[in-house]
Amino acid sequence: MLGGLAYAVACVVAAAILVASGLAYLVLDNLRGLGSSHAIGNGPKSTDGATNILLIGLDSRKDQNGDPLPNAILRQLHAGSARGVNEEGVGGYNTNTLILLHVPNDGGKATAFSIPRDDYVDYADAVGPQQRGKIKEAYGVTKAFTEDRLMARGEHDRHRLEHDGREAARKATISTVRKLLGVPIDHFAEINLAGFYDLATTLGGVDVCLKHPVRDRYSGADFPAGRQHLDGAQALAFVRQRHGLTNGDLDRTHRQQAFLASVTHQLKQEGIFGDLGRMQGLLKVARKDVVMDSGWDVLGFAQQAKSLTGGNVEFHTLPIEGFGTRNRQSVNLVDPDKIRTMVHDTLNPPKQSPAPASSGDGSGGSGSGGGAKTTVDVLNGGGRAGLAAKVAGALSRGGYATGKVGNTAPTARTTVRYGASAGSDAKRIAALFGVKAVSDASLPAGGVRVVLGPGAIVPSVASSGGRKPAPEPTATLPTTGAQGGAVKGGGIPCVD
């Protein structure tokens, strides 16, 4: 379930090492077949040089071709049979692991956000009548409906149905996560139970640390407290256990994060990145078990991945507001606006707004000493209903005149443009969103146009008198309680 990210890290670093050794052909040969999906599509992409990767871990008892996993493997994994197709049985197509990994363009600390699998959300690009449900089910719901529709049209080739169903399912999952988090998704990696087992086995096992002893017949987890070395089957039990844990799925999420931190630490500590034979083994297994998007330039991404291999990564669990029942299912209740704000502010820490200038500079702006107010158009290109009006209201409270407010075509990022004599105020407004203002001769004098992207939030704007109005509600990632604080890389984290 979690091997995709570790494989991705291993692949890109292996690529860098092998290319440096003049053995690029080995990289290309072993990576052939990984970039086989086109599910990313033409959605928004990062424009600041950073890379956002979505890790999709399927709790499926089938391989990438839809064929059942051998029962011998399933018995080792305590994963049941391959016949079940729904959550109550086994072998369905739930995405029991969804982690967004943000890798900055400067080689700095990477940040990962885990999305609890039972979060009740609006689906995006889902095929079929169900447009809302647990986030883990967007994949399976879309896959099943897509296959039913294709069969109704006369398609009966099993492999074609599997391929097209999974592509639609990946697209729905990617779009749903993008909508929930409000950030672009540049690439993805998908893996199932067999891939996870293969990863841990190929590594020769993985070190983990537990705060308390555990025993669970459902997952097969039976471990003492403390640091210990787990083989492939034990490692899978470690990250799959939720029964018997105080916080259920939330504690399982911390297990998943700790496993990823441990794997990246182990890859470096054991010198695997410098061992050509072991790297080739990882790449060979990855080719069998991992699906990645066709647009991922693994060789080009290699340099960015250095922060991951050095353990410079921090894992967060996105918050839930409580528990509820929807369609007779237990679900996590979430606040999408709060989640988007948390993700945005974690990746783009709010900057102190510049103090209003006291000397006139010809801008005519509200805080610049000019006589007339700058008029600001606010257009919503990020898809969040009502955001343009909220942003316009915040700017109005800061002393700016409100111009046109409404929706516009989807855009990948927030932009701020200005007409003649509005430069100073445009720069102040742009600073609120962490972007640069650009002159636009097509705008009227004294006019500013803000186009909001997917990650935009309502800013806190200084008033013309230099006083800050009451700030918009803010939210920070949880640091205590059931969801706990961050799980940090660079070692072997100890978890419940």
From TrEMBL:
Keywords: Membrane, Transmembrane, Transmembrane helix. Residues 343-377, 462-496 are annotated as: Disordered. Residues 374-454 form the LytR/CpsA/Psr regulator C-terminal domain. Residues 94-268 form the Cell envelope-related transcriptional attenuator domain. Gene3D superfamilies: 3.30.70.2390, LCP protein. Pfam families: LytR_C, LytR_cpsA_psr. The chain crosses the membrane at residues 6-28. Residues 361-372, 482-496 have a biased composition (Gly residues). InterPro entries: LytR/CpsA/Psr_C, LytR/CpsA/Psr_CW_biosynth, LytR_CpsA_psr. It comes from the Bacteria. Belongs to the LytR/CpsA/Psr (LCP) family. This is LCP family protein.
